[in-house]
Amino acid sequence: MARLLTRFGEIALKGKNRRYFENALTSNIKKALRGLSGCRVEQTRSRNFVEVPDKLLDDAITRLSRVFGIVSISPVVEAELDMDSIMDVALREFSKIARAGLTFKVQTKRANKRFPLASPLMSAEVGAHLLTNLPSLTVDVHEPDLLLEVEIREHEAYIFTQKIPGPGGLPVGVTGKGLLLLSGGIDSPVAGWMAMKRGVKLEALYFHSFPFTSERAEEKVVDLCRVLAAYNGATRLHVSHFTEIQKELRQKCPDKLQVTLMRRMMLRIAARLAAERGAQAIFTGESLGQVASQTMESISVIGRVTDLPILRPVIGMDKAEIVEISRRIDTYPISIRPYEDCCTVFLPEFPVTRPRLAEVEAAEAALDIEALVDSGSGPNIRTFEIRGQI
Asked: What's the whole-model pTM score?
């Protein structure tokens, strides 16, 4: 059996509420490891330890690296709480990766203050033992090629040489539930990922305009949702049939206002669904100034249709920053597939960038708003449960 140590960061600052966050993280770790037979999770005050069969180690690390709240993961080897055992295990493990000419450093964390040697002396003793037995290595305390870490716990010591990064943030679910407006583009999946990083459990809503948008466009969104579900856990994806609404807008409303009116209709449907699903906020991928519907004036006019908070995690980011995150979380290759969503298919040649509320409301007077919202809500929404892509 292999043993993994997982660390959290921000949770340590939570004071009297810390136990709630720790328990949520442990629960999410267990959910992430479902289906991997033989795994066991142990919660301590500042760490979680995971025992996993050796053959499942890589799979377990991949899953844990997507659990929000985890800052880093280390495969560790246990040693008894005495110097001979610690030095022997350190030498054995370091010999597996050390090569002639490399520099190294030993770093000790003494969580158990009853252990007789202080951290600097521990590091010096272990380092001297390694140099004696591996004379081709040299010490570099500033920029070593290899770092061996020793952690002194209550009943044992742990030795490790790897720190695999986790996503950090807060455990999904601790800050509430949100509804993500998920398109097939680059921005909205990144916005969803950033919402989850702040502890939000997400459901997603996609607007589909078949036959104006193809079935491949919907498949693209399902695939994006599957990537997000690897972080979020099992995720409900709601698909709203938006075709009749767009037809009505094109027939009865000014062309230049199509984007503004369409976004207002989407928010009305999203607000109704959020109320039904108990979501406390709507999340979007809007970035200020990026397109016509994302100017200050457009955002203000579009958002007037609901009192529900509309949160925009990427609002202050430029495209390059958003793309960098999308590449890192593996949504980018899916987002750039050449299948358009309803927002791009019906884009007018000259959309208004500074809409006036009075003008927009006058255009909507030609519409039966409630009937249109009904057509994209309730039984006209298809819902899928998407499992994470491992």
From this structure: 0.92
Q: Given the structure tokens 């000014």, which residue do they identify?
A: 254
Residue 207 sits in the same domain as residue 353? yes
For residues 212 and 340, the answer to whether their CB atoms sit within 8 Å is no
> Which one, of 300, 315, 316, lies nearest residue 358 by Cα?
300
What is the total residue count of the chain? 390
User: Tell me, what's the pLDDT at 390?
Assistant: 44
CA distances from 124 to 119, 121, 131, 133, 145 (A): 9, 5, 10, 14, 17
Give the ranges where the chain is alpha helix by DSSP (H).
18-32, 57-64, 83-95, 119-133, 187-197, 215-232, 243-252, 258-277, 296-303, 319-328, 332-335, 342-345, 357-364, 369-375
CA distances from 305 to 215, 266, 302, 310, 346 (A): 30, 10, 7, 11, 21
Identify the domain boundary among 165, 186, 203. 165
- Its domain, for residue 139, covers 2-165
pLDDT computed for residue 197 by the predictor: 98
> What is the three-class DSSP state of 32?
helix
Whether residue 158 sits in one domain with residue 125 = yes
Do residues 160 and 206 both lie within one domain? Answer: no
DSSP conformation class of 170 = B
CA distance 308 to 91: 59
In terms of domains, do 9 and 55 share one? Answer: yes
pLDDT in tens, 334-377: 999 987 665 555 666 677 889 999 999 999 999 999 999 999 99
The answer, yes or no, to whether residue 279 has pLDDT greater than 90, is yes
Asked if residues 152 and 176 have their Cβ atoms less than 8 Å apart, the reply is: no
pLDDT in tens, 79-125: 999 999 999 999 999 898 888 888 999 999 998 899 999 999 999 99
- Read out DSSP for 222-250? HHHHHHHHHHHSSEEEEEEE-HHHHHHHH
* 187 and 328 together in one domain: yes
Peptide linkage before 211 cis (omega within 30 of 0): yes
Q: How many domains does the chain have?
A: 2
**Does residue 245 form part of some domain?**
yes
